[in-house]
Description:
The chain has 284 residues and is an alpha/beta fold. The chain has helices at residues 4-15, 21-36, 42-45, 57-65, 70-74, 95-104, 121-129, 142-150, 154-160, 204-207, 212-215, 224-236, 252-261, and strands spanning 2-3, 50-51, 76-79, 82-85, 111-115, 134-139, 166-169, 184-189, 194-195, 216-217, 237-246, 266-271, 277-283. It has two domains: 2-66; 88-283, Vaccinia Virus protein VP39 (Rossmann fold), CATH 3.40.50.150. Helix 1 (4-15) crosses helix 2.
Amino acid sequence: MTSLKDFLRGGLTALEPLYPAEEARNILMSLCESRLGVARYAYITDPDFPVEESSGIFKDLERLSKGEPLQYVLGHAEFRGRRFKVTPDVLIPRPETESLCEEALKFPAKRILDLCTGSGCIAWTMALEAKGAETFGIDISPAALEIARGQDFSEEIEATGSHRPVFIEYDILRDEIPFEPESFDLILSNPPYIMESQRESMRLNVVGFEPHLALFVPDGDPLVFYRAVARWSGRLLSPGGTGIVEINEDLGPQTRDVFLEAGFSESRILNDFFGKNRFVLFSK
Ligand SMILES: C[S@@+](CC[C@H](N)C(=O)[O-])C[C@H]1O[C@@H](n2cnc3c(N)ncnc32)[C@H](O)[C@@H]1O
Protein backbone atom coordinates (compact mmCIF):
# COMPACT_ATOMS: atom_id res chain seq x y z
CA MET A 1 0.00 0.00 0.00
CA THR A 2 1.19 3.54 -0.81
CA SER A 3 1.13 6.31 1.79
CA LEU A 4 -0.13 9.80 1.01
CA LYS A 5 3.39 11.27 1.26
CA ASP A 6 4.79 8.66 -1.17
CA PHE A 7 1.90 9.19 -3.58
CA LEU A 8 2.55 12.96 -3.54
CA ARG A 9 6.27 12.47 -4.02
CA GLY A 10 5.67 10.23 -7.06
CA GLY A 11 2.97 12.60 -8.33
CA LEU A 12 5.31 15.58 -8.21
CA THR A 13 7.95 13.71 -10.18
CA ALA A 14 5.31 12.87 -12.81
CA LEU A 15 3.83 16.38 -13.09
CA GLU A 16 6.82 18.67 -12.67
CA PRO A 17 7.95 18.24 -16.28
CA LEU A 18 4.53 19.64 -17.31
CA TYR A 19 3.72 22.30 -14.72
CA PRO A 20 5.58 24.79 -12.51
CA ALA A 21 6.25 23.13 -9.11
CA GLU A 22 3.60 25.14 -7.21
CA GLU A 23 0.91 24.35 -9.78
CA ALA A 24 1.83 20.64 -9.80
CA ARG A 25 1.48 20.59 -6.02
CA ASN A 26 -1.91 22.31 -6.17
CA ILE A 27 -3.17 19.90 -8.81
CA LEU A 28 -2.13 16.92 -6.70
CA MET A 29 -3.66 18.31 -3.52
CA SER A 30 -6.97 19.00 -5.30
CA LEU A 31 -6.88 15.47 -6.71
CA CYS A 32 -6.31 13.94 -3.25
CA GLU A 33 -9.00 16.14 -1.73
CA SER A 34 -11.50 15.05 -4.34
CA ARG A 35 -10.66 11.34 -4.70
CA LEU A 36 -9.54 10.48 -1.17
CA GLY A 37 -11.68 12.93 0.78
CA VAL A 38 -8.66 14.25 2.69
CA ALA A 39 -7.95 17.89 3.58
CA ARG A 40 -5.42 19.77 1.41
CA TYR A 41 -3.01 19.86 4.35
CA ALA A 42 -3.34 16.09 5.07
CA TYR A 43 0.21 15.52 3.83
CA ILE A 44 1.30 17.38 7.00
CA THR A 45 -1.27 16.07 9.50
CA ASP A 46 -1.70 12.54 8.13
CA PRO A 47 1.27 11.72 5.84
CA ASP A 48 0.76 7.96 6.23
CA PHE A 49 -2.88 8.06 5.09
CA PRO A 50 -3.32 4.93 2.94
CA VAL A 51 -3.83 5.59 -0.78
CA GLU A 52 -5.83 2.64 -2.16
CA GLU A 53 -5.79 1.48 -5.78
CA SER A 54 -9.62 1.22 -5.55
CA SER A 55 -9.91 5.03 -5.23
CA GLY A 56 -8.97 5.26 -8.93
CA ILE A 57 -6.34 7.87 -8.10
CA PHE A 58 -3.43 6.06 -9.78
CA LYS A 59 -5.33 6.06 -13.09
CA ASP A 60 -6.10 9.75 -12.55
CA LEU A 61 -2.41 10.46 -12.08
CA GLU A 62 -1.60 8.61 -15.28
CA ARG A 63 -4.07 10.85 -17.18
CA LEU A 64 -2.68 13.97 -15.53
CA SER A 65 0.88 12.99 -16.37
CA LYS A 66 -0.09 12.90 -20.07
CA GLY A 67 -1.14 16.54 -19.76
CA GLU A 68 -4.91 16.08 -19.40
CA PRO A 69 -6.39 18.97 -17.36
CA LEU A 70 -7.45 18.17 -13.79
CA GLN A 71 -11.02 19.33 -14.48
CA TYR A 72 -11.50 16.67 -17.19
CA VAL A 73 -10.00 14.01 -14.95
CA LEU A 74 -12.36 14.94 -12.09
CA GLY A 75 -15.28 15.64 -14.46
CA HIS A 76 -16.08 19.03 -13.01
CA ALA A 77 -14.90 22.64 -12.77
CA GLU A 78 -15.75 25.45 -10.37
CA PHE A 79 -17.37 28.55 -11.84
CA ARG A 80 -18.66 31.36 -9.61
CA GLY A 81 -18.85 28.97 -6.69
CA ARG A 82 -20.86 26.33 -8.57
CA ARG A 83 -19.72 22.94 -9.75
CA PHE A 84 -20.15 22.50 -13.53
CA LYS A 85 -19.82 19.12 -15.22
CA VAL A 86 -17.13 19.16 -17.89
CA THR A 87 -15.91 16.62 -20.44
CA PRO A 88 -13.45 17.05 -23.32
CA ASP A 89 -16.49 18.09 -25.42
CA VAL A 90 -16.60 21.46 -23.68
CA LEU A 91 -14.15 24.22 -22.90
CA ILE A 92 -13.19 24.33 -19.22
CA PRO A 93 -14.83 27.52 -17.88
CA ARG A 94 -12.22 30.20 -17.14
CA PRO A 95 -12.01 32.80 -14.34
CA GLU A 96 -12.14 35.62 -16.94
CA THR A 97 -15.59 34.40 -17.94
CA GLU A 98 -16.70 34.68 -14.31
CA SER A 99 -15.89 38.40 -14.65
CA LEU A 100 -17.97 38.58 -17.83
CA CYS A 101 -20.96 37.31 -15.81
CA GLU A 102 -20.23 39.75 -13.01
CA GLU A 103 -20.20 42.63 -15.50
CA ALA A 104 -23.39 41.34 -17.17
CA LEU A 105 -25.23 41.15 -13.85
CA LYS A 106 -24.98 44.96 -13.60
CA PHE A 107 -27.58 45.17 -16.38
CA PRO A 108 -31.14 44.24 -15.40
CA ALA A 109 -32.54 41.91 -18.05
CA LYS A 110 -35.63 39.80 -18.62
CA ARG A 111 -34.36 37.82 -21.63
CA ILE A 112 -30.71 36.87 -22.02
CA LEU A 113 -28.97 35.12 -24.91
CA ASP A 114 -25.60 33.35 -24.60
CA LEU A 115 -24.03 32.64 -28.00
CA CYS A 116 -21.45 29.79 -28.12
CA THR A 117 -22.55 28.46 -24.74
CA GLY A 118 -20.30 25.35 -24.39
CA SER A 119 -20.78 23.93 -20.88
CA GLY A 120 -23.53 26.52 -20.36
CA CYS A 121 -21.56 28.26 -17.59
CA ILE A 122 -22.67 31.75 -18.69
CA ALA A 123 -26.28 30.80 -19.40
CA TRP A 124 -26.74 28.91 -16.12
CA THR A 125 -25.06 31.65 -14.07
CA MET A 126 -27.30 34.29 -15.57
CA ALA A 127 -30.40 32.11 -15.15
CA LEU A 128 -29.60 31.60 -11.48
CA GLU A 129 -28.34 35.07 -10.62
CA ALA A 130 -30.27 37.49 -12.85
CA LYS A 131 -33.47 36.92 -10.95
CA GLY A 132 -36.45 35.86 -13.03
CA ALA A 133 -34.64 36.14 -16.38
CA GLU A 134 -35.37 33.75 -19.24
CA THR A 135 -32.04 32.55 -20.61
CA PHE A 136 -31.14 30.87 -23.90
CA GLY A 137 -27.83 29.23 -24.81
CA ILE A 138 -26.78 28.41 -28.38
CA ASP A 139 -24.00 26.15 -29.59
CA ILE A 140 -23.17 24.25 -32.76
CA SER A 141 -21.93 21.17 -30.89
CA PRO A 142 -24.55 18.58 -29.91
CA ALA A 143 -22.08 17.02 -27.45
CA ALA A 144 -21.50 20.36 -25.70
CA LEU A 145 -25.25 20.98 -25.53
CA GLU A 146 -25.78 17.61 -23.87
CA ILE A 147 -23.37 18.71 -21.13
CA ALA A 148 -25.00 22.15 -20.85
CA ARG A 149 -28.49 20.65 -20.52
CA GLY A 150 -27.24 18.07 -18.03
CA GLN A 151 -25.85 20.56 -15.50
CA ASP A 152 -27.63 19.83 -12.28
CA PHE A 153 -28.78 22.97 -10.55
CA SER A 154 -32.36 21.77 -10.04
CA GLU A 155 -32.32 22.46 -6.30
CA GLU A 156 -31.10 26.02 -6.76
CA ILE A 157 -33.59 26.56 -9.60
CA GLU A 158 -36.43 25.45 -7.35
CA ALA A 159 -35.20 27.30 -4.27
CA THR A 160 -34.83 30.58 -6.16
CA GLY A 161 -37.82 30.20 -8.50
CA SER A 162 -35.46 30.75 -11.48
CA HIS A 163 -36.11 29.51 -15.03
CA ARG A 164 -33.97 26.69 -16.43
CA PRO A 165 -32.01 27.92 -19.46
CA VAL A 166 -33.11 26.66 -22.86
CA PHE A 167 -30.28 25.24 -24.98
CA ILE A 168 -30.53 25.23 -28.77
CA GLU A 169 -28.31 23.65 -31.40
CA TYR A 170 -27.53 26.24 -34.07
CA ASP A 171 -24.64 27.54 -36.16
CA ILE A 172 -24.38 31.27 -35.44
CA LEU A 173 -22.55 31.81 -38.73
CA ARG A 174 -25.74 30.89 -40.62
CA ASP A 175 -27.64 33.77 -42.21
CA GLU A 176 -31.02 33.08 -40.59
CA ILE A 177 -31.52 34.09 -36.96
CA PRO A 178 -34.13 31.94 -35.19
CA PHE A 179 -35.65 34.53 -32.80
CA GLU A 180 -38.05 37.46 -32.99
CA PRO A 181 -36.41 40.88 -33.60
CA GLU A 182 -35.66 42.98 -30.50
CA SER A 183 -36.54 40.10 -28.17
CA PHE A 184 -33.47 40.22 -25.85
CA ASP A 185 -32.15 42.81 -23.37
CA LEU A 186 -28.73 41.25 -22.94
CA ILE A 187 -26.54 39.23 -25.33
CA LEU A 188 -23.37 37.59 -24.07
CA SER A 189 -20.72 35.53 -25.80
CA ASN A 190 -17.36 33.94 -25.28
CA PRO A 191 -16.81 32.68 -28.83
CA PRO A 192 -13.76 30.92 -30.28
CA TYR A 193 -11.05 33.58 -30.74
CA ILE A 194 -7.57 32.04 -30.67
CA MET A 195 -5.72 32.38 -33.96
CA GLU A 196 -4.19 29.24 -35.45
CA SER A 197 -0.82 31.06 -35.31
CA GLN A 198 -1.16 31.45 -31.51
CA ARG A 199 -1.44 27.67 -31.11
CA GLU A 200 2.31 27.16 -30.73
CA SER A 201 2.51 29.37 -27.66
CA MET A 202 -0.25 27.42 -25.88
CA ARG A 203 0.25 24.77 -23.27
CA LEU A 204 -0.16 21.07 -24.02
CA ASN A 205 -3.06 20.68 -21.58
CA VAL A 206 -5.12 23.22 -23.58
CA VAL A 207 -4.12 22.41 -27.16
CA GLY A 208 -3.95 18.65 -26.66
CA PHE A 209 -7.24 18.20 -24.80
CA GLU A 210 -9.73 21.05 -25.13
CA PRO A 211 -12.06 21.01 -28.17
CA HIS A 212 -10.52 22.82 -31.15
CA LEU A 213 -14.02 23.85 -32.25
CA ALA A 214 -14.21 25.89 -29.05
CA LEU A 215 -10.80 27.50 -29.37
CA PHE A 216 -9.57 28.32 -32.83
CA VAL A 217 -10.36 30.74 -35.62
CA PRO A 218 -8.52 31.11 -38.93
CA ASP A 219 -5.64 33.63 -38.96
CA GLY A 220 -7.21 35.17 -42.04
CA ASP A 221 -10.49 35.97 -40.30
CA PRO A 222 -10.03 36.02 -36.50
CA LEU A 223 -13.10 38.22 -35.88
CA VAL A 224 -15.57 36.05 -37.78
CA PHE A 225 -17.56 35.20 -34.62
CA TYR A 226 -17.69 38.83 -33.46
CA ARG A 227 -19.23 39.88 -36.76
CA ALA A 228 -21.82 37.14 -36.22
CA VAL A 229 -22.49 38.33 -32.65
CA ALA A 230 -22.83 41.92 -33.96
CA ARG A 231 -25.31 40.75 -36.62
CA TRP A 232 -27.37 38.74 -34.10
CA SER A 233 -27.27 41.60 -31.59
CA GLY A 234 -28.21 44.23 -34.19
CA ARG A 235 -31.34 42.24 -34.89
CA LEU A 236 -32.18 40.79 -31.49
CA LEU A 237 -31.30 43.45 -28.91
CA SER A 238 -34.14 45.68 -27.83
CA PRO A 239 -33.43 49.46 -27.94
CA GLY A 240 -31.19 50.27 -24.95
CA GLY A 241 -30.07 46.62 -24.76
CA THR A 242 -26.48 45.63 -24.00
CA GLY A 243 -24.00 43.08 -25.30
CA ILE A 244 -20.76 41.85 -23.72
CA VAL A 245 -18.23 39.62 -25.46
CA GLU A 246 -14.99 38.08 -24.25
CA ILE A 247 -12.17 38.90 -26.67
CA ASN A 248 -8.68 38.01 -27.82
CA GLU A 249 -6.47 40.38 -25.81
CA ASP A 250 -4.32 41.04 -28.89
CA LEU A 251 -7.32 42.27 -30.90
CA GLY A 252 -9.05 44.69 -28.51
CA PRO A 253 -9.43 47.79 -30.73
CA GLN A 254 -10.25 45.71 -33.84
CA THR A 255 -13.01 43.86 -31.95
CA ARG A 256 -14.41 47.10 -30.52
CA ASP A 257 -14.54 48.49 -34.07
CA VAL A 258 -16.59 45.52 -35.31
CA PHE A 259 -19.44 46.73 -33.08
CA LEU A 260 -18.95 50.42 -33.90
CA GLU A 261 -19.01 49.63 -37.63
CA ALA A 262 -22.17 47.55 -37.11
CA GLY A 263 -23.87 50.75 -35.86
CA PHE A 264 -24.05 50.27 -32.09
CA SER A 265 -24.29 53.56 -30.20
CA GLU A 266 -21.48 52.58 -27.86
CA SER A 267 -18.68 50.02 -28.02
CA ARG A 268 -15.84 50.02 -25.52
CA ILE A 269 -13.10 47.77 -24.25
CA LEU A 270 -13.09 46.53 -20.64
CA ASN A 271 -9.86 45.30 -19.06
CA ASP A 272 -9.57 42.23 -16.83
CA PHE A 273 -7.97 42.02 -13.37
CA PHE A 274 -4.49 41.83 -14.99
CA GLY A 275 -5.12 45.05 -16.93
CA LYS A 276 -5.43 43.21 -20.28
CA ASN A 277 -8.09 43.94 -22.92
CA ARG A 278 -10.63 41.25 -22.08
CA PHE A 279 -14.20 42.26 -22.99
CA VAL A 280 -16.02 44.54 -25.37
CA LEU A 281 -19.26 46.06 -24.13
CA PHE A 282 -21.68 47.49 -26.71
CA SER A 283 -25.13 49.01 -26.50
CA LYS A 284 -27.95 49.59 -28.91
C1 LIG B 1 -14.64 29.47 -26.30
S1 LIG B 1 -15.92 28.24 -26.19
C2 LIG B 1 -16.92 29.01 -24.94
C3 LIG B 1 -17.75 28.09 -24.10
C4 LIG B 1 -18.43 28.76 -22.92
N1 LIG B 1 -19.28 29.87 -23.35
C5 LIG B 1 -17.41 29.27 -21.92
O1 LIG B 1 -17.26 30.49 -21.80
O2 LIG B 1 -16.76 28.46 -21.24
C6 LIG B 1 -16.76 28.53 -27.72
C7 LIG B 1 -17.97 27.64 -28.03
O3 LIG B 1 -18.43 28.02 -29.36
C8 LIG B 1 -18.99 26.90 -29.99
N2 LIG B 1 -19.04 27.16 -31.43
C9 LIG B 1 -18.03 27.06 -32.34
N3 LIG B 1 -18.47 27.38 -33.57
C10 LIG B 1 -19.79 27.72 -33.44
C11 LIG B 1 -20.80 28.14 -34.35
N4 LIG B 1 -20.53 28.32 -35.67
N5 LIG B 1 -22.05 28.38 -33.89
C12 LIG B 1 -22.34 28.21 -32.58
N6 LIG B 1 -21.43 27.81 -31.65
C13 LIG B 1 -20.16 27.57 -32.08
C14 LIG B 1 -18.07 25.76 -29.57
O4 LIG B 1 -18.71 24.52 -29.71
C15 LIG B 1 -17.75 26.14 -28.11
O5 LIG B 1 -18.63 25.48 -27.24
